[in-house]
Design goal:
globular; eight-stranded mixed sheet; 689 residues; NTF2-like_dom_sf; SnoaL-like domain-containing protein; alpha+beta; SnoaL-like; binds 2-acetamido-2-deoxy-beta-D-glucopyranose; signal
Length: 689
C-alpha cells in the first residue's frame, strides 16, 4: 500500500524519534523551547556577573538581581551538624552594589594594576515549572574562584560553591533572586601564601539541590509530551519557533568551535587552529606588545609568538576558557562569543611560569552550513610572573580598554506571541522541530550530567555518583580500570575511597571542575559525546592548595526519559603543581630507572571488568596503562574524539567512540540501540562530511 507522502514522512519521523510517544504539538514545542531558552539565559546571567566584575561594574551586577534580591555569604563552622553558617546577608540592588564595591575595595579591576577575576563555572541548573509547564524559578549550582589584586602587592583568593536561586519577572526577564556563596578556601595578603580552608576549619558538604535522576531531566516534562499534563494554549508562530530553535543549535556549534579552538591552542596545534578560521579572518591583541594580524598567515604568525607548533617536554600552554556567553545574530550568519581566558603557562626546563588573565570577544561567520572563526580579539588584563603573582599589576602597562559586553537582558526571542501563521495542531514539521530542539536540550543535559558527576566526586559521594550512570554504562577508575553498571561503579569508588561518612568534615577537598565542554549530539538527540577539561584546584587545612589538569572523554545517553552517563574516561594528568609556591613549572623529570607505579592496591580486592592495560595503545603512557608511564614534565599524548570541526583534519591522536569500545565492542553505543554521535564536521542538521 502506498501512503500519501505526508503520512509516510510522518511515520518515518516517528520511528526515528522514539522519545516522542505522541506527535509533538505546537504548544509543547513552544513550551519546551521557552524552558530551554530560560535555562540558557540563567547561565548567561551568572556568566555576565563574572564578566562585569572584571571591569569593576558592580552596580551593573546589582541590576542582574531581582529588586528584592539577596546576596548571601556562608562560612564553614567546623561543626558537622551545621557545617556552614550565614556570615553576610545583603538585600536590595543598591545595598548589593554598595556591598560589592566596598568588598572589592581597590581590588576592582579599575584602579591601575588591580584585578577582579571572579569565575563561576560548571553550571547545574534546575528549572521549576508552574501549572502551565513554564519555568518561573530555578536553582543553579556553580563552582567559584576569585582572583583579586590591588596593584600594590595585595592579593586575595577566594573559592567555594554557589547554590543560587533565580526568578522570572515577566518583562524584566530572569534575575538572580538569591546568590548564596559557600566560601570554602581563601587567602588574603601576600600572593606567596596562596589559599587554605576558610577559618582553618574542616569542610562539610554543601547541600545539593539536585538528585542523580534530576540531573538527567533537563526540562520537566520534555520527554513525556508535556501537552498531556498541562492545559492552555500558547500563541505560537511556527516560523518564529523554527528561528529560535535554529539559534539554539547555532549557539551550540559556536560553543563547540570556540572550545575546540582553545584545546588546539593549549597543545600548540597551530595548523588545526588556523583551520577553524575563515579565509577572511583577523586577530587583534590589545595592549602593550599587541598588534593586528590578518588572514590565515596572520593567525599563524600571532600563534607562533607563543612558541613553535606542538608541545615539547616541559611546555605548558593551557588557556582554559571560562564564563563564555554566545550571542547568535538574528540573521543566523554571524555570532559573537565573549569570555574570560586564564593562561596557565610555563616551561619546566627553566622553571619559569606565568599567569595571563584575558578577556576575549570573538566573531564567527556561517557559510555553507559551517561556522568558522572570523575574528579573535584579545584584551590582556594582567600578565604576571607566576612566582611574583599579579598583586603588583603584572609585567605590562595596565589595560584601559573595555571590550563591549553582550546584553544578556535582551530577550532571546523577538516576540513569541505575535502570531502571523498559526501552526496546525498536528504539523509534521513540528516533529522535526521537536527533534532539533531535543538536540539543543541534549547539549544542556550533557553539561548538567558532567558537572553533577564533578560535584558528587568532590564529596566522594560514591552512591550518588554511581547513580548518574546508565544501566549498562561504564567508568574508568583512575590508575585501575573500567567498571560497568552503576552498582560496580559505585562499589569501585567505595573500594578506592572507603565508605566515607558524607556528613563528617574533611580537612581537604580536590575539586573536579569540568569546564569548556565540546558536546557533539547524535542526529536523533538521544546520545552525545562530551569532552571536558578537568581543572582541579585543591584546598587543605595545613598547606596552600594548587592546580592540576587532565582531560575527560565521555558519552551520555537518554535512557527511559532520563539522561545518564554512558562512558567516562579520565586521561590524567597532563600537568600537576608540585605546590602553590612551585606551581606547574617546578616539575622534575622522572628518573629513567624508576619502576612504573603499580595499579592501585585495592584493584586486587575489586578487579575491574577491563584494566587500563587491557585497553591497549589508547591508554598507553597513562598510569596503569601499557608502556612506560609518562609523567609531567614529559608530554602525554592528547587524544581527540573528533576531527577538526571545520576542515575535518584528523588529529595525530584520534579516537572515535568510547575509549574501551574497541576492546569491548559490546559497550559501544551502536551495539546498544544508540547512534554514535558525529566525530567531525556536521553540515546543517546532521549530514556528515
Ligand atoms: C552599566 O551601568 C551604566 C549606568 O547605568 C550604564 O550606562 C552602562 O551601559 C551599563 N553597562 C553595562 C555593560 O551594563
Ligand atoms: C522577591 O520577589 C519575588 C517576586 O515577588 C519573589 O518570588 C522572591 O521570592 C522574592 N525574593 C526574596 C529574596 O525575597
Ligand atoms: C575544628 O574541629 C577539630 C575537631 O574537633 C579541632 O581539632 C580543630 O581544632 C577545630 N578547628 C578550629 C579552627 O576550631
Ligand atoms: C540539571 O540537574 C538538575 C538537578 O538534578 C535538574 O533538576 C535539571 O532539570 C537539570 N537541568 C538540565 C538543563 O539538564
Ligand atoms: C572581509 O572582512 C572585511 C572586514 O570585516 C570586510 O569588509 C570584507 O567585506 C570581508 N570580505 C569578504 C570576502 O567576506
Ligand atoms: C589594531 O586594531 C585595533 C582595532 O581596530 C586598533 O584600535 C589598534 O590601534 C590596532 N593596533 C595596532 C597595533 O595596529
Ligand atoms: C606537529 O605535529 C603534527 C602531528 O604529528 C605534525 O603533522 C606536524 O608536522 C608537527 N609540526 C612540527 C612543526 O613539527
Ligand atoms: C625560559 O625558556 C623560555 C622558552 O620556553 C624562554 O622564552 C625564557 O626566556 C626562558 N627564561 C629564562 C629566565 O631563562
Ligand atoms: C539590554 O537590552 C535591554 C532589553 O532590550 C535594554 O533595556 C537595555 O538597555 C540593554 N542594556 C544595555 C547595557 O545595552
Ligand atoms: C557520620 O559523621 C557524623 C558527624 O561526625 C556522625 O554524627 C555520624 O554518627 C557518622 N555516621 C556514621 C554512620 O558513622
Ligand atoms: C620545587 O621542587 C623541589 C623538589 O620537589 C622542591 O625542593 C622545591 O622547594 C620546589 N620549589 C619551590 C619554589 O617550591
Ligand atoms: C636514578 O636512579 C638510580 C637508581 O636508584 C640512581 O642510581 C641514579 O643516580 C638516579 N639518577 C638520577 C639522575 O637521579
Amino acid at each position: 500500500m502506498r501512503l500519501p507522502p505526508q503520512v509516510s514522512s510522518l511515520l518515518l519521523l516517528t520511528c526515528l524519534i522514539p522519545f516522542t510517544q505522541a506527535v509533538a504539538s505546537a504548544n509543547s514545542v513552544a513550551r519546551n523551547l521557552q524552558n530551554i531558552e530560560s535555562v540558557r539565559t540563567i547561565k548567561d546571567i551568572q556568566r555576565q556577573i563574572s564578566q562585569l566584575a572584571a571591569f569593576g561594574l558592580y552596580a551593573n551586577i546589582s541590576l542582574l538581581f531581582a529588586p528584592n534580591g539577596t546576596f548571601q555569604v556562608l562560612a564553614p563552622t567546623n561543626s558537622s551538624s551545621t557545617p556552614y553558617t550565614i556570615s553576610t546577608t545583603i538585600t536590595g540592588r543598591a545595598a548589593i552594589a554598595a556591598f560589592l564595591i566596598q568588598d572589592a575595595g581597590l581590588m576592582n579591576g579599575i584602579a591601575p594594576g588591580s584585578m577582579d577575576i571572579w569565575i563561576t563555572e560548571t553550571p547545574l541548573v534546575n528549572l521549576e515549572v508552574d501549572s502551565q509547564g513554564l519555568g518561573q524559578r530555578a536553582k543553579g549550582r556553580w563552582n567559584g574562584i576569585r582572583f583579586q589584586g590591588d596593584g600594590k602587592g595585595g592579593t586575595r583568593l577566594r573559592g567555594g560553591i554557589y547554590e543560587n536561586e533565580y526568578v522570572y519577572l515577566g518583562k524584566e526577564g530572569w534575575k538572580v533572586d538569591v546568590l548564596r556563596y559557600y566560601g570554602m578556601y581563601e587567602g588574603e595578603g601576600e600572593y606567596k601564601d596562596g589559599w587554605r580552608n576558610v577559618g582553618g576549619n574542616g569542610l562539610g558538604r554543601v547541600k545539593y539541590h539536585m538528585t542523580p535522576d534530576g540531573a538527567g531531566v533537563p526540562v520537566p516534562g520534555f520527554y513525556e509530551g508535556i501537552e498531556e499534563i498541562v492545559d492552555g494554549d500558547m500563541d505560537v508562530d511556527i516560523e518564529e519557533l523554527e528561528k529560535r530553535v535554529q539559534r539554539l543549535n547555532d549557539e551550540d556549534e559556536v560553543r563547540n568551535l570556540m572550545h575546540s579552538h582553545g584545546y588546539y591552542v593549549d597543545r600548540r596545534m597551530w595548523t588545526d587552529v588556523v583551520d577553524l578560521h575563515s579565509s577572511n579572518t583577523s586577530v587583534t591583541v590589545r595592549g602593550e606588545g599587541g598588534g593586528n594580524f590578518t588572514g590565515p598567515a596572520g593567525v599563524r604568525k600571532v600563534l607562533e609568538r607563543m612558541g613553535p607548533e606542538n608541545l615539547t617536554q616541559g611546555i605548558n600552554n593551557d588557556h582554559p576558557i571560562l564564563d563564555m556567553i554566545v550571542e547568535v545574530d538574528p540573521n543566523g550568519r554571524e555570532a559573537v562569543a565573549r569570555g574570560i581566558e586564564i593562561g596557565m603557562i610555563g616551561d619546566a626546563n627553566n622553571k619559569t611560569a606565568r599567569w595571563e588573565f584575558n578577556v576575549f570577544r570573538n566573531g564567527f561567520v556561517k557559510g555553507q552550513g559551517v561556522w568558522k572563526v572570523k575574528h579573535v580579539d584579545i584584551t590582556p588584563l594582567i600578565v604576571a610572573d607566576y612566582h611574583e603573582g599579579w598583586g603588583y599589576g603584572g609585567l605590562k602597562t595596565p589595560n584601559m580598554y573595555t571590550p563591549p559586553f553582550l546584553n544578556t537582558s535582551r530577550p532571546r526571542s523577538t516576540s513569541p506571541s505575535t502570531s502571523t501563521r498559526r501552526a496546525a495542531k498536528k504539523d509534521p514539521n513540528l516533529d522535526n522541530l521537536q527533534r532539533r530542539l531535543a538536540k539543543a536540550l541534549a547539549f544542556d543535559a550533557a553539561e548538567n550530567l558532567s558537572t553533577a558527576y564533578g560535584y558528587f566526586l568532590d564529596d566522594l559521594d560514591c552512591s550518588l555518583m554511581g547513580s548518574l550512570f546508565a544501566s549498562l554504562g561504564h567508568k574508568a577508575s583512575p590508575f585501575a580500570g573500567f567498571y560497568s553498571t552503576p552498582t560496580r561503579i559505585t562499589d569501585a569508588c567505595f573500594a578506592s575511597w572507603g565508605h566515607t561518612n558524607t556528613s563528617s568534615l574533611r580537612s581537604g577537598i580536590s575539586y573536579h571542575w569540568r569546564p569548556q565542554p565540546v558536546i557533539l549530539v547524535s542526529s536523533d538527540g538521544r546520545s552525545a559525546t562530551l569532552r571536558a577539561r578537568l581543572l582541579q584546584p585543591n584546598t587543605a587545612l595545613d598547606k596552600p592548595g594548587a592546580f592540576n589538569s587532565a582531560m575527560y572523554h565521555d558519552q551520555m545517553v537518554l535512557e527511559n526519559g532520563i539522561w545518564r552517563l554512558w562512558s567516562v574516561t579520565i586521561d590524567e594528568f597532563y600537568w600537576t603543581s608540585s605546590s602553590w609556591a612551585g606551581g606547574w613549572s617546578n616539575a622534575t623529570l622522572r628518573n629513567d630507572s624508576t619502576p612504573d607505579p603499580e595499579p592501585a592496591g585495592w584493584t586486587k580486592k575489586y578487579p575491574p571488568d577491563l584494566s587500563i592495560k587491557d585497553v591497549g595503545d589508547r591508554e598507553a603512557g597513562f598510569r596503569g596503562g601499557s608502556g612506560r608511564y609518562v609523567e609531567w614534565p614529559m608530554i602525554q599524548r592528547m587524544w581527540f574524539q573528533y576531527r577538526n570541526l571545520v576542515s575535518g583534519r584528523t588529529p595525530e591522536w584520534f579516537w572515535e567512540g568510547c575509549v574501551p569500545c574497541r576492546v569491548r565492542r559490546d559497550w559501544a553505543l551502536e551495539e546498544n540501540g544508540y547512534q554514535e554521535p558525529p566525530s567531525g564536521p556536521v553540515v546543517g542538521d546532521g549530514t556528515r562530511r
